[in-house]
Fold each of these.
Amino acid sequence: MRIAISQVKSSSKAEIAKKHQHLVFGRTFSDRMFQCEWNPDLGWHQPRIVAHQPLAIAPSANVLHYAQQVFEGLKAHRRVDGSIALFRADKHAERLDRSADRLCMPAVGPELFLEAVHTLVDLDRDWVPPVGAGSLYIRPTIIATEAALGVRVASNYLFFVIAGPVGPYFPKGFKPVKIFVEQQYVRAVPGSIGFAKSAGNYAASLLPGRNAYANGCDQVLFLDARERRYLEELGGMNIFAVIDDTLVTPALSGSILPGITRDSILQIAASMGLHTEERLVSLDEIVKGIEQGDVTEIFAAGTAAVVTPIGSLMVNGTTVEVNHGRVGQLTQTFYDHLTGIHQGTLSDDFLWMTTVASKAKTGKVPAKAKRTNVRARKRPAKAQVKAPAKKIRPKQATRR
Ligand SMILES: Cc1ncc(COP(=O)(O)O)c(C=O)c1O
């Protein structure tokens, strides 16, 4: 599909550099956004890049009343060779379509998803922070826009993509966080939409999150809905524990989001020869394991924070310290390995990075251009979309 690119005033490099110095997660956005509509007759149509701007949707739009919405969160990283690359964008495209299917929404398909993301990041490439200073967080979203009240599947949708530079997800950076173990409220129930990345799941997590903050914790850990016995996940991250030298994470039960970072860590761990298990993990096993010294590390993983060490769990008002509140060795190893792959200081052996080719025109009307300020951009060749990042000398991640 040809993406029309509107003329948009780009921020100057100096303005962007100033913003890069004070990055709070999710507060700063790049100059442009992608938009594309769907209806039953035309399917996805009119893909375009326009200025980042408010949306005009009817107050009766389905998304505003019944939360027919799905989204993704992925990142573009600045690499040490100056290039910009996306981390596992194909997997985010697949997950968006799986989420959309559960919410009765039309699939975007990997081709349109990748083209939208590559074109937007290419045009707004100056917004990707320097190596080590952060990354460009990308938020593809589909919303139901049909203007009609009544609980039913909508017949009109908008797919949009926005992006913005981000620093650390947790204001404290890569430091152990305090986790509140939620035993009253649940995030998602079996058979519902927990495995989908959809707004309703996050709405359900707000009150428990507020309770966690009120108790001096940084994040909330949800337990299973049936028994309140087994670990599920955090509000926006999956959870791992190192138990007797085995890397253990809750199995994907249907109510847990299948994290792409989670999958990456499991693959890295296996490549290191570490034993991994995806299974039921009870809170009891964790608390007893910490007391007995079998549970040596707990950490969370997700796109926003990559890897976050967990320093303590608050269970029924009692704080249980993990690894004496220090960052565990494997936690540090996974963080270093993933950020090394992102930045291009470690070999991308899994071919997870895709370089964003520098080819889009900025939309600036050249002197001799026709009067129209919208022009089509050639579709990037498939090879450019899929090309793996150039490999560099491998530096082995070691288990310390
Ligand atoms: C509820 C939830 N769990 C887990 C994750 C981690 O998923 P990923 O690693 O794909 O970002 C996220 C973030 O997307 C999330 O929102």
Amino acid sequence: MRAPSDSVDLSNLWMPFTANRQFKAHPRLLAGAQGMYYTTADGRRILDGTAGLWCVNAGHARPEIIEAITRQASHLDYAPSFQIGHEDSFRAASRIAALMPDGLDRIFFTNSGSESVDTALKIALAYHRARGEGQRTRLIGRERGYHGVGFGGISVGGISPNRKTFSGVLLPGVDHLPHTHAPEHNAWSRGQPAWGAHLADELERIIALHDASTIAAVIVEPLAGSTGVLVPPVGYLERLREITARHGILLIFDEVITAFGRLGAATASGRFGVTPDMITMAKGISNAAIPAGAVAVLRGIHDAILDASGSGIEFFHGYTYSAHPMATAAILAAQDIYEREGLFQRAEALSAPFEEAAHALRGRRHVIDVRNLGLVAGVELAPREGAPGARAAEVFARCFDRGVLVRYTGDTLAFSPPLVIDESQIAELFGTVAEVLDEID
Ligand SMILES: Cc1ncc(COP(=O)(O)O)c(C=O)c1O
């Protein structure tokens, strides 16, 4: 770990999704990470209750990943990804394809979740056009959905602060399903709420309004994370699948946070037994050691696009860093760890004690809902009058001061620890939150 420095100038960096002025007045600086813990610049240990940003699924600083990246950096630092390849990119694609539901075995590499989402939306449009249905251009997202920050992602996304500044230039022809959170019906759900499958039927209304022949794709997070953990009601995803299939509309699951074990299986699709036409992923794909993302595409979609094109490039899309050698090295090493250590199964095994610990917060001051699935939990707090978000922000800050990292969006605390967490750390995580809730107004 580097020595703490008083002299670092904070002024030049414009921090993403951050209250910059507040942060710079009271900075929180991390300097090291190992296993389940961060170390702050002033030398304190912080239990990572959020796997960084839902991404460090195997825990921090795994030597196998460090070694793979280091080896690759000295061996092949960079290879162009257009019209030329390197072996690890194909190995990594095969490795990811093997974890996807049957048929989703064509893999397009990106560098982030936002890029994966925009890539999937473009593939949907290209597919319909390749089949002579170029008029299918509408995209359907969902209220409260988060699909990153590209123009495609914020258009189908449903988080208003992310959209309003750009409202005049969002993609045309986008519509949104209603979100599934209705505390009067589904508060305190353990696992999938029993209430709410019928909300998927709203898609029929949207289709009737626009006509199926104009709609390219529906995109949802199978479990919505960034909006504050919304678990899909029993039967909801199945209904979306049935309706989209019946109308020739593609279904995209945005699995940027759910892929790679978060719900106790390789994918949420596998966990719920619902197979979409495309899956977007990032984060845990490389254990976040190197930025990486991907889209898994149904083979028939890929083939239709290739078959419809002449002899040249079939799909005019890609990134300088698609399948970057360091990313593919990190992907392969991370996947080795997940498999060798059975981390997806571990997440499944820990989901019961995790659920118990989360729901033990019921009855604490300010707590108005707890919801969970796999190694994800959301704890919703009553907002302070006139200051939405302030109470959860204070819990976050006080937990950090006591050595525990949690996340908050609005007044919901979100928990998504590395899958290597143990039961005593689960107790510490929720126990610290309980103490803090008792202290604050
Ligand atoms: C469901 C989902 N999609 C997309 C993204 C965007 O990913 P990135 O920040 O890597 O662009 C996120 C990030 O949290 C996400 O949760």
